[in-house]
Amino acid sequence: MEYQERATPVVGAVLWKRQLDSATGETPIMPDGCLDLLWDGTRLFVAGPDTAARWHRSPAGTTFVGLRFSGGLGPTLLGVPADELLDRSANLEDLWPGRQVRVLTEQVEADAPTALEAWVVRRVARCDQDPFGPRVLAMAKEGTPIAVMAERLSISPRQLHRRCLPAFGYGPRRLSRVVRFQRALEEVRCGIPLAQVAAASGYADQAHLSREVRSLAGTTPRALLGDPYVVDSRANRSTGRPSGSWTTA
Predict the structure, then answer these.
(1) Does the pTM exceed 0.85?
(2) 248 by DSSP, 3-state: which?
(3) What is the per-residue pLDDT for 229?
(4) What would the DSSP string read from start to end of 201-231?
(5) DSSP label at 156?
(6) DSSP string spanning 67-122?
(7) Domains in the chain: boundaries
(8) Residue 246 pLDDT more than 90?
(9) What percent of the chain has pLDDT over 90?
């Protein structure tokens, strides 16, 4: 499997592509609090946020090109609340008017990366962006307690939870868990010992990290370390490490 990504001019949107080799069967998709707009060579579809890892099977040789949206940007641009797509994917034709889907599909068929990047630039120029999503995501990455998040946003914890659902698919508590888990995966990919990963990622101890891996990834840390897809791929990152050109995992 080959995975590449690059920045777009839109903050919170990363363009990526992934080609599955002849030996690839099922691949694990880790939760990241994002929405993705994807092209698989035949159709456009939207992958919603996941509460835990799920397995995805595609024919060998399939090439995916997609836009990954973080910080609540996806629901704004795609016009669908994240919680309506929680733990599932939907064809774009089921979410948009047919004519809009046909026009974008024709453009993507000709040159998927160029067409998707051009679409997100045009789309963001027409949408009013709510700073709520990026602010919550930034606080989640900092490990900010829920009560403090709500206080900083001048809303109640219940209102915070309610507003997070359409932006991220789930409430701020699970979002914080997912963000911390993604940070731990980054450390795991670098070959850092699990005890150090736990400390650096904000877990109480290695046992706490192990429980979260079981809960969110459905496996053990040892099995996670032994999975070359998880360790070597950037395909599950929430925002990636974009640059002006394609970077390869």
Answers:
(1) yes
(2) strand
(3) 53
(4) HT-SSHHHHHHHHHHHHSS-HHHHHT-HHHH
(5) -
(6) EEE-TTHHHHHHTS-GGGGTT-EEEGGGTS-HHHHHHHHHHHHH-HHHHHHHHHHH
(7) 1-178
(8) no
(9) 69
